[in-house]
From TrEMBL:
<dbReference type="GO" id="GO:0005737">
    <property type="term" value="C:cytoplasm"/>
</dbReference>
<dbReference type="InterPro" id="IPR026455">
    <property type="entry name" value="GRASP_w_spasm"/>
</dbReference>
<dbReference type="InterPro" id="IPR048936">
    <property type="entry name" value="MvdD-like_ATPgrasp"/>
</dbReference>
<dbReference type="GO" id="GO:0009432">
    <property type="term" value="P:SOS response"/>
</dbReference>
<dbReference type="GO" id="GO:0018169">
    <property type="term" value="F:ribosomal S6-glutamic acid ligase activity"/>
</dbReference>
<protein>
    <recommendedName>
        <fullName>MvdD-like pre-ATP grasp domain-containing protein</fullName>
    </recommendedName>
</protein>
<feature type="domain" description="MvdD-like pre-ATP grasp">
    <location>
        <begin position="5"/>
        <end position="91"/>
    </location>
</feature>
<dbReference type="Pfam" id="PF21068">
    <property type="entry name" value="ATPgraspMvdD"/>
</dbReference>
Length: 331
């Protein structure tokens, strides 16, 4: 068998990456893990009629992209260090030169990501561009493949918000951006989670405010977290509605009394729709949230391309980290 060399792009301290790398090592593979804090130096890019390659240095050792046999984008980014911008006395010229070089570096970085993420002849999982996925667009695409979605508006008007609440009875707000606003110090903490919006909160709003994503609250029988990997769905049911702390958003974890999360067998028609959706989104992995209503309807909420999946892997004995390593090692 040819030598296995896996390039992994991740974040420092990501335990999921640690576990996958242990499995890669178990299968006899080598790997290079590059975190967002890893300093890289570009040596050169070669494009020719017979092929292409990129050579870079990491910790004073040269690597060629063509030497890698698989690629996994988990999280983070490639952190290339480029020469400092030349200094000019003319500040306007200084700014223009800096902006121009930043654009040059951005296009070089984009090419390097595309080198792997568009390759079809080696195993690849994930893409940095998936991080730019749009919740609103994804809702529409989910609806178009036949999945139900919550009633949703984006509004900056208290009048429209009150009309929507009168129509749906209960409403919640959530960030449009994937992670939401995360901040913490000794006095303030924000979570970026979904929150029910009561009438008092709405009445306290100004007539106009920042555009906000609002959804009609979907009553749940239970919730599903589904990890999707190369056409397969690995599903876990989450009994989050039995706990007031997790009822609105299960990510508001109750560590003292965790939700039960046993394995779940998805109906074949729902699995097929999810596969169609992920093909439409050009994603081969991601964590999907779905609510199952008391009427047994499946309501799609969102897909996170780099979401946590240990709460699906471990309680359900799916060994997802092992499956990822097997795919990357062609096992």
């Amino acid at each position: 068998m040819d030598k296995i060399n896996v390039l992994v792009v991740s974040e420092e301290g990501d335990n999921t990456t640690d576990t996958v790398l242990k499995w890669i090592k178990y299968y006899g593979g080598n790997f290079l893990r590059l975190n967002n804090t890893s300093k890289l130096y570009l040596d050169h890019v070669h494009l020719g009629n017979e092929g292409e390659d990129v050579t870079f240095y990491y910790e004073e050792k040269a690597y060629r992209l063509s030497d890698f046999t698989a690629y996994w984008y988990r999280r983070g980014r490639l952190n290339f260090t480029y020469p400092k911008t030349p200094e000019f006395q003319n500040q306007k010229l200084q700014k223009e030169v800096s902006n121009s070089l930043d654009r040059e570096y951005t296009y070089i970085n984009n090419y390097i990501y595309n080198y792997f993420e568009k390759k079809k002849d080696i195993p690849t999982i994930g893409s940095i561009y998936d991080n730019q996925t749009n919740k609103v667009t994804n809702l529409l695409k989910a609806r178009n493949v036949g999945l139900k979605i919550p009633e949703t508006i984006i509004t900056s008007s208290k009048e429209h918000l009150l009309e929507f609440k009168n129509k749906t009875q209960k409403v919640l707000i959530k960030p449009i951006y994937q992670a939401g606003f995360l901040y913490e110090d000794e006095n303030t903490k924000t979570s970026g989670l979904s929150v029910l919006l009561g009438e008092n909160e709405i009445n306290g709003l100004p007539d106009k405010f920042m555009p906000t994503l609002v959804q009609g609250y979907v009553e749940k029988l239970y919730e599903l977290r589904i990890f999707y990997l190369n056409g397969q769905c690995f599903s876990s049911v989450i009994f989050s509605q039995w706990d007031e702390q997790t009822k609105v958003d299960f990510r508001n974890y109750n560590w003292e009394k965790p939700n039960r999360t046993p394995p779940y067998l998805l109906p074949k028609n729902i699995s097929a729709k999810i596969k169609t959706l992920m093909d439409e989104l050009d994603m081969n992995s991601g964590s999907i949230d779905i609510i199952v209503t008391p009427d047994n309807e499946y309501v799609f909420l969102e897909v996170n391309p780099v979401g946590l999946f240990w709460q699906v892997s471990y309680p359900c004995n799916y060994y997802l980290e092992k499956r990822i390593a097997e795919y990357l090692c062609n096992k």
